[in-house]
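Work Package 4 report. The design task specified in the project plan requires that, given a folded chain encoded as structure tokens, an amino acid be chosen for each position. We show below one input record used in the internal validation round.
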């Protein structure tokens, strides 16, 4: 049976065009800066983010980690959301490996941080306290429902940070989803911040990799950190080649995933026993819960879904996340709705 894998857009496999580009990629030693394909990807990424330079890294986690460490000294404090991926799901890397302290503010329902909350969290110049150095934003915001922040908000935070001498790093793992949903270019969301990480290996379908972008000076620092973290990847052009195809061919089509997310959400709201969480889907994610009427444990529901060929991400005792991506078509959406109907009845 062919599975409809809605657990994440990280499950996406490379397209045939990517495999071909990988097979034919021109390569060199990237630690010497000599891989032409990596260099090309980094240049393309920097242009798309409106930054001076880019650095190809192994993952979104590595991009965020190298980014935060390039901005901060040990003992500095980062302001992040309490629902941020950096805080929840990156194994505490910024504190474990960077000695960076974090202050978590409540994410607003749309994934933003309130400017008043940031203002109140900035430390005094007092030897008892860590030094506030960096604000981390996430756009689109995974744990808040795949919601996005507007260019206006990104500008507000950028301006606010500059006035107070703080840096801003954007976890833009899915920045192209955020931009597509608003009909704007990704760089409009990235320009107001100092650094941004975006992922090639999620909705864009490349097998591996993310790009960290920022000023030339910032990327020079991040390059040393990438080496320190074991991320100097030598003939990485094989991987970067897929990333180039991803940027050239997979960005425009993300709106199809958003349309299917809405279709899936509409279908699931018709199923008694299910309730949508976190509003309607803003991008490619649908969050839902089982109502009290559904008696069986979620593990039983998951088993039934699996029997119908549906893989879903369990996010809590009664809740799921479903993520749309290139390998899910309209028939997959219909199968998912039918499977949920059968599983919860
Ligand atoms: N997110 C994964 C899981 O780790 C939860 C997923 O399935 O959504 N930032 C954001 C906003 C992310 O959603 C993720 C991955 C990352 C960073 C980390 O990227 P990778 O997995 O490449 O290290």
């Amino acid at each position: 049976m062919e599975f409809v894998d809605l657990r994440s857009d990280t499950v996406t496999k490379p397209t045939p065009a990517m495999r071909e580009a990988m097979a034919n990629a021109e390569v060199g030693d990237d630690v010497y800066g000599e891989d032409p394909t990596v260099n090309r990807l980094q240049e393309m990424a920097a242009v798309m983010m409106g930054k001076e330079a880019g650095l190809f890294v192994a993952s979104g986690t590595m991009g965020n980690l190298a980014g935060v460490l390039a901005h901060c000294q040990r003992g500095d404090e980062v302001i992040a959301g309490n629902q941020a991926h950096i805080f929840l799901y990156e194994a505490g890397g910024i504190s474990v490996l960077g000695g960076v302290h974090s202050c978590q503010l409540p994410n607003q329902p749309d994934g933003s941080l309130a400017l008043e909350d940031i203002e109140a969290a900035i430390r005094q110049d007092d030897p008892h306290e860590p030094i506030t150095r960096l604000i981390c934003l996430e756009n689109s915001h995974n744990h808040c429902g795949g919601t996005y922040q507007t260019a206006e908000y990104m500008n507000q935070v950028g301006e606010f940070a500059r006035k107070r001498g703080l840096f801003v790093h954007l976890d833009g793992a899915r920045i192209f989803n955020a931009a597509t949903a608003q009909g704007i270019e990704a760089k409009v969301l990235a320009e107001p911040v100092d650094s941004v990480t975006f992922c090639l290996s999620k909705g864009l379908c490349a097998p591996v990799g993310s790009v960290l972008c920022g000023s030339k000076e910032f990327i020079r620092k991040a390059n040393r950190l990438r080496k320190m973290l074991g991320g100097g990847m030598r003939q990485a052009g094989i991987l970067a080649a897929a990333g180039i195809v991803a940027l050239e061919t997979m960005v425009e089509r993300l709106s199809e995933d958003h349309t299917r997310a809405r279709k899936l959400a509409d279908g699931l709201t018709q199923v008694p026993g299910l309730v949508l969480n976190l509003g309607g889907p803003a991008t490619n994610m649908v969050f839902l819960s089982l109502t009290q009427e559904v008696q069986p444990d979620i593990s039983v529901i998951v088993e039934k879904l699996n029997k119908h060929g549906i893989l879903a991400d369990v996010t809590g005792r009664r809740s799921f996340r479903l993520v749309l991506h290139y390998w899910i078509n309209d028939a997959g959406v219909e199968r998912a709705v039918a499977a949920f109907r059968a599983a919860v009845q």
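The pocket of TLP is lined by residues 8, 10, 59-61, 85, 89, 138, 142, 171, 173, 199, 201, 210 (CB under 6 Å). Validation will be extended to a larger panel in the next phase.
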